[in-house]
Amino acid sequence: MPKISDKGRMMPESPIRKLVPFAEKAKKAGRKVFHLNIGQPDIPTPQSMIDAMHNLDVKVIEYSHSAGIHSYREKMCAYYKKHNIDVTPNDIIVTAGASEAILFAVQTCLNPGDEIIIPEPFYANYNGFATSAGVKVKPIISSIESGFALPPISEFEKAIGPNTKAIMVCNPNNPTGYLYSAEELEVLRKIVIKYDLFLFADEVYREFCYDGTVHHSVMNLEGIDDNVVLFDSVSKRYSACGVRIGAMISRNREVMSTAMKFAQARLSPPSLGQIASEAAMETPESYFTEVIEEYRKRRDIVVEMMNNIEGVVCPNPKGAFYVTAKLPIDDADRFCQWLLEDFSHENQTVMLAPATGFYSTPGAGKNEVRISYVLKVDDLKNAMISLEHALKEYPGRIL
Amino acid sequence: MPKISDKGRMMPESPIRKLVPFAEKAKKAGRKVFHLNIGQPDIPTPQSMIDAMHNLDVKVIEYSHSAGIHSYREKMCAYYKKHNIDVTPNDIIVTAGASEAILFAVQTCLNPGDEIIIPEPFYANYNGFATSAGVKVKPIISSIESGFALPPISEFEKAIGPNTKAIMVCNPNNPTGYLYSAEELEVLRKIVIKYDLFLFADEVYREFCYDGTVHHSVMNLEGIDDNVVLFDSVSKRYSACGVRIGAMISRNREVMSTAMKFAQARLSPPSLGQIASEAAMETPESYFTEVIEEYRKRRDIVVEMMNNIEGVVCPNPKGAFYVTAKLPIDDADRFCQWLLEDFSHENQTVMLAPATGFYSTPGAGKNEVRISYVLKVDDLKNAMISLEHALKEYPGRIL
Q1: pLDDT at residue A39 in the model
Q2: Selection from A390, A385, A399 nearest residue A328 by Cα
Q3: CB-based contacts of A30: which residues, under 8 Å, 6+ apart?
């Protein structure tokens, strides 16, 4: 039997996936499991997207242009313009989710062995994309004490070495919900100029900003057009994760023409998803106003109830729909498994994402979990009550 | 300005894409261009797939399971059963086209620097996938004189070295249309056992077999379940290239569980495309009977008219919807560009794919072109007449 590759062996397994069999067992045993572990929103997809499928008017479901349907890219430009970002259709390659955009950018910009600096905790799958491209992630820690703010410039400079090619940020952040300030972005701008680095930014949660805060895009940082690559996605914006439509965006012509070779090799992004996403551009502003108000309420409940639990530290983030909280426990992986295997309160339990999967520094985040507030308010309240009881009963509780 | 990666620089550009600007210019100048260069069929997508979108009944377009919707994978098993292939849903990962399936398999099974043997000419994008995974393609030539039959076992053995990890075939073949016989597959079976190699097979044209021939799948080769990985796609089968739904299929458990880590990193294959593809399973056999009869007619016309042109050698392939033919020309790339830039007959011209892009041996295929017979019979006839005139006029004609 031929052997699998070293890369295949090294490829990290999602820390959440490991818990799935335990969740299934809990459900089979009749327990209700509140899923606070996932990034799949429960918010309805805009009717315009569903209607676009109901009214699909084609004889042949054809490949699109490898960079995406031109009229869709034009409408994307109008969308970005509303967010004060000036781009042309040539600056955009439509991809199969932000995932494919990240893969294209990493392959286009980094050689195997090159390093990419990412403030941690970070979206777990960045590790997978790096492994698959043979690239090394150099984490620098954003601490929960600072609410997961951008680490100081000195930490970046300590991490930068001869193989450093890029810095990557997610803003607003998954898994922390942290929204970077204009000043923090300015820090990034200075570093990438000084060290001639690429700046990758995952801004898929752009709309989800609370308490009157404003999102600042890396696309508007002065004088670094050739350094910046943006990753975007309609998944969270329109609660349409299944359409698998994202984008890689940059004003660096060499980067885009090189990325196009990767895009052409896979022929086309999904056409149906593009048609739906083009229709999504007609979504009225009121959709976002309502959705953001709903998430804001949910966040407030989670943050308040969490901080009322003894020993819990839960920052109050300004964006996305995640919080990363510190719990009075010995080991988040063990705790999350215990919740599903051994715990129930009124026949209910909670599924959380252990934060260890969001760090690449071994041992970091051992007493932290990510909570996605993608459930309705009443369910969230019940989930928080269950969690409070669980933290009293858990044998590995640390006070 | 930071530099792009070596891999990005080395990534091959599609030989067809290079011609696109010339085709656009020809059209702008008012000439009709017959597109025989593409793999986008003109056949209507089955109504069941369009109806599945018209009747889409979801509130949220959600991620599917990373391996694909379970009910779709179950129906795929029933489809394979009809083709005498026994697989379970666990043997299947649904992917964004066969392209993603190939990427997953190459990453799962080969290390950077490993070699994969592919009879050439082969589907041009295999080069791109290999480059993107840092893997080396070792071509062995299938000659036009033998109608592009599988090279003899001695040629494989000459190519096999210490870094050889896999053999890849496409059956029926793109770009030659060649359909491998049971005996030829037996040759492959023996080689992969003897040298403990993976056998990758792209069988996306399975249904397209003519003249009463039968397709033999690598999945039915005895005793090599752990070696075989199958790539499939609904793109050509249902003339639905835009849904971007393919599959990676293997009975090797370690390969599949490793590939799942790559699949999980990108979360989900396209959900809308999967819903359409699941509905496609209801397509009546009469659809294929008609489509195959239509392609058979087209092939007959192309092969007959081509062989009637002086100096042309055109084999009569049994499968897919391509022929690769030898022309009396100095250089296929130059000829294909000349057709678009400088030639017209009754204000019409032809766009062909130079075969050089389907070889990785430098200089091979210099006087060959691939013709996709994806146009209606009348258009095909007109295109062949234009081509005949062009071959008389072309300044680089060689007799």
Answers
A1: 74
A2: A399
A3: A347
A282 in B contact zone (CB under 8 Å): no
Interface membership of B191 toward A (CB under 8 Å): no
Mean pLDDT, residues B96-103: 97
Instruction: Tell me, rounded to whole angstroms, the distance of Cα A396 from its chain centroid.
Output: 30
Q: Are A116 and A243 part of one and the same domain?
A: yes
DSSP type of residue A369? E
CATH of the domain at A347: 3.90.1150.10
> Cα separation of A221 and A199, whole Å?
11
pLDDT digits (tens, 9 = 90+) for A277-326: 999 999 999 999 999 999 999 999 999 999 999 999 999 999 999 999 99
Same domain, A365 and A249: no
Mutate to test the interface with A, among B261, B274, B275, B376 (most CBs of A within 10 A): B261
- Contact list in B for residue A8 (CB cut-off 8 A) is 107-109, 258-259, 261-262
Tokens (6 digits) for A31:
């327990």
Q: Quick check: B241 and A165 CB within 8 A?
A: no
Burial readout B140-156 (b: 16 or more C-beta within 10 A, e: otherwise): bbbebeeebbbbeeeeb
Beta strands in chain A, from DSSP E residues, in sequence order:
32-35, 92-95, 115-120, 136-141, 164-170, 198-202, 228-233, 246-249, 322-326, 348-351, 353-354, 368-372
Based on the domain organization, do A125 and A257 belong to the same domain?
yes
d(CA B215, CA A140): 55
Last residue of a domain, one of B225, B250, B280: B280
Neighbours of A383 (CB within 10 A): 26
Give the model confidence (pLDDT) of A29-67 as tens digits.
Answer: 999 999 999 877 889 999 999 999 999 999 999 999 999
Q: Residue range A192-210: average pLDDT?
A: 97
pLDDT at B17 > cutoff 90: no
The radius of gyration of chain A from alpha carbons, rounded to an integer in Å, stands at: 21
* Alpha carbons A18 and A337: distance in angstroms, whole number: 9
The number of distinct structural domains making up chain B is 2
Q: How many residues does chain A have?
A: 399
B176: Cα within 13 Å, side-chain hemisphere: 28
Q: Which positions 99-158 of A are in contact with B (Cβ < 8 Å)?
A: 99-100, 103, 107-112, 114, 125, 128-129, 132, 134
Contacts with B, A 359-388, CB within 8 Å: none
Residue B298 backbone phi and psi in degrees, to 5: -65, -45
Same-domain check for residues A337 and A256: no
Does an H or E element contain B290, and which?
A: helix B285-307
pLDDT at A153: 94
Contact (Cβ atoms closer than 8 angstroms) between residue A247 and residue A233: yes
SS3 B329: strand
Looking at residue B209, its pLDDT comes to 97
Q: Are A45 and A254 in contact (CB under 8 A)?
A: no
What is the pLDDT confidence band of residue A108, given thresholds at 50, 70 and 90? very high
Averaged pLDDT for residues B100-104 = 97
Range of the domain at B111: 47-280
Q: Do A109 and B6 touch (CB under 8 A)?
A: no
- Answer whether A367's CB lies under 8 Å from A330's CB: yes
pLDDT category, A17, cuts 50, 70, 90?
Answer: confident
The Cα A361–Cα A237 span in angstroms is 30
**B270 and B130 in a common domain:** yes
Residue B283, number of CB atoms within 10 A of its CB: 18
If asked whether residues A40 and A52 sit together in one domain, one would say: no
The answer as to whether A399 is a domain residue is no
Asked if the model's pLDDT at residue A147 lies above 90, the reply is: yes
Give long-range contacts, CB 8 A cutoff, 24+ apart: B307-316: B308/B388, B309/B384, B309/B387, B309/B388, B309/B391, B310/B391, B310/B399, B311/B391, B311/B398, B311/B399, B312/B391, B313/B144, B315/B144, B315/B147, B315/B148, B315/B176, B315/B177, B315/B178, B316/B147
Residue at A191 is within a domain: yes
